C-alpha cells in the first residue's frame, strides 16, 4: 500500500505517536567494535564525510527486510512520506523514527558495529541513538533530493554528530548522494528544505540562511560523488551539505541511515518546526539529551 502524498505542511504527520523505547533485553557493550583507521577518522573530521567500502555487507538483507516491512504498510509506522507530487513518474518514499517498531532496524541499531563506528568518528566517549531514516526510490524516478544539512531539521545542536548511511542497492555516481566536503566547518546553518519541491521552511530563524546555488556554481564547491554497492557505508556529519541530482533512476535505490549524537550534543529549541518533532520532550536549550528517549548504545572502552 502506498501512503498518501504528503504536502509541505504534513511531512511530520503523526501516524503512531512517539513513545519511550523499550530497552529490555539490551546489554550495553555486547555489540561488536568497529576498528576505525586514524586516516579515515582524520578524513571525516576534515571533510565531514567518509566512504567505507563493504563494511555493512552482512546487514544488507536484514535492512532490506526491515524496509520491506516499512513499505508494505507504511501507515502502521511513524512519519511515512511520499516526496513526489501526484502524477510524477516513479516513487520517493521515506520514513523515520521506527527503530523501536521494526525488529530489523532495532537489530541493526543495537547489535551492529554502527554505534561503535559513529562514536569513533565523532571522537566521542559515547554514541547516543537519535533516530533512523529509511529511503526508497523506484526505477524511473527523476527527482533531486535538494541540497541540505540535517542539523537544521533537528532539535539538537553540537559538532559531535554522525549519520551511518548504508547503501542497500547499487547506485551509480550520478544518482548516489553527493556531499560538499568541508561544509560542516563553515559555521553556517541553512534553512531546512521540503524534499517534495525544495522549498525552505523555518525561514524566520535568523541564525540560518538559504542554501546557496551549488549546482549553478559547482566550481566553488568540493563535491564528492561516489558510486555505491550494497553494504558500502557513508559516515557524515549532521552539518555536511548533501543531496542528489535529478538523473533518472534505472533501478531501485534503497538506503538506511542511523543518526547518532555524541558528547557535546544538546537539546536546541528551534523557533520553527523540527523533524522529527519529538513532542513532550520536556527539555530546554542546552540540556543534555534524554537517555531514556535516546539510548546510549556505545561507550568508549
Overview of this structure, please?
By secondary structure, the chain is an alpha+beta fold. The chain has a single domain (35-299), classed as Jelly Rolls (Sandwich). The protein has helices at 38-47, 60-72, 103-111, 114-122; strands at residues 49-52, 81-82, 92-96, 126-137, 156-157, 161-167, 178-180, 223-225, 233-236, 242-243, 253-261, 266-267, 296-299. α2 (60-72) runs antiparallel to α3. The chain is globular and about 45 Å long.
- Could you say how many structural domains there are in total? 1
Please identify the top-level CATH class.
Answer: Mainly Beta
* Class per helix and strand makeup: alpha+beta
Report on the biggest sheet: 8 strands, antiparallel
CATH-wise, what's the superfamily?
Answer: q2cbj1_9rhob like domain
What's the topology here?
Blueprint: H1 38-47, E1 49-52, H2 60-72, E2 81-82, E3 92-96, H3 103-111, H4 114-122, E4 126-137, E5 156-157, E6 161-167, E7 178-180, E8 223-225, E9 233-236, E10 242-243, E11 253-261, E12 266-267, E13 296-299
Antiparallel strand pairs: 1-9, 2-3, 3-4, 4-11, 4-13, 5-12, 6-9, 6-11, 7-8, 7-10
Helix pairs in contact: 2-3
Give a quick rundown of the structure.
The chain has 301 residues and is of the alpha+beta class. The chain is built from four helices and 13 strands.
Based on the model shown, name its key terms.
13 strands, Jelly Rolls, alpha+beta, single chain, 3-stranded antiparallel sheet, 8-stranded antiparallel sheet, 301 residues
Amino acid at each position: 500500500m502506498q501512503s498518501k502524498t504528503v504536502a509541505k505542511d504534513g511531512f511530520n504527520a503523526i501516524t503512531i505517536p512517539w513513545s519511550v523505547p523499550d530497552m529490555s533485553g539490551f546489554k550495553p557493550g555486547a555489540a561488536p567494535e568497529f576498528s576505525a583507521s586514524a586516516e579515515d577518522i582524520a578524513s571525516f573530521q576534515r571533510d565531514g564525510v567518509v566512504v567505507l567500502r563493504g563494511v555493512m555487507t552482512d546487514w544488507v538483507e536484514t535492512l532490506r527486510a526491515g524496509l520491506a516491512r516499512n513499505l508494505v504498510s507504511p501507515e502502521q509506522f511513524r512519519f511515512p512520506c511520499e516526496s513526489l507530487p501526484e502524477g510524477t513518474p516513479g516513487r520517493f518514499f521515506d520514513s523515520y523514527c521506527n527503530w523501536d517498531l521494526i525488529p530489523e532496524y532495532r537489530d541493526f541499531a543495537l547489535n551492529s558495529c554502527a554505534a561503535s563506528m559513529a562514536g569513533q568518528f565523532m571522537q566521542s566517549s559515547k554514541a547516543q541513538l537519535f533516530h533512523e531514516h529509511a529511503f526508497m526510490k523506484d526505477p524511473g524516478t527523476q527527482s533531486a533530493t535538494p541540497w541540505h544539512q540535517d542539523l537544521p531539521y533537528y532539535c539538537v545542536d553540537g559538532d559531535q554528530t554522525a549519520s551511518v548511511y548504508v547503501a542497500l542497492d547499487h547506485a551509480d555516481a550520478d544518482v548516489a548522494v553527493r556531499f560538499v566536503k568541508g561544509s560542516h566547518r563553515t559555521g553556517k546553518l541553512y534553512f531546512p528544505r521540503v524534499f517534495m519541491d525544495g522549498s525552505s521552511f523555518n525561514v524566520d530563524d535568523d541564525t540560518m540562511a538559504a542554501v546557496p546555488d551549488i549546482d549553478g556554481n559547482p566550481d566553488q564547491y568540493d563535491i564528492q560523488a561516489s558510486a555505491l554497492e550494497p553494504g558500502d557505508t557513508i559516515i557524515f556529519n549532521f552539518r555536511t551539505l548533501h543531496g542528489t541530482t535529478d538523473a533518472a533512476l534505472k533501478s531501485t535505490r534503497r538506503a538506511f541511515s542511523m543518526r547518532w549524537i555524541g558528547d557535546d550534543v544538546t537539546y536546541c529549541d528551534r523557533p520553527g518546526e523540527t523533524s522529527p518533532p519529538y513532542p513532550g520532550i520536556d527539555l530546554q536549550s542546552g540540556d543534555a539529551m534524554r537517555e531514556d528517549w535516546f539510548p546510549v548504545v556505545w561507550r568508549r572502552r
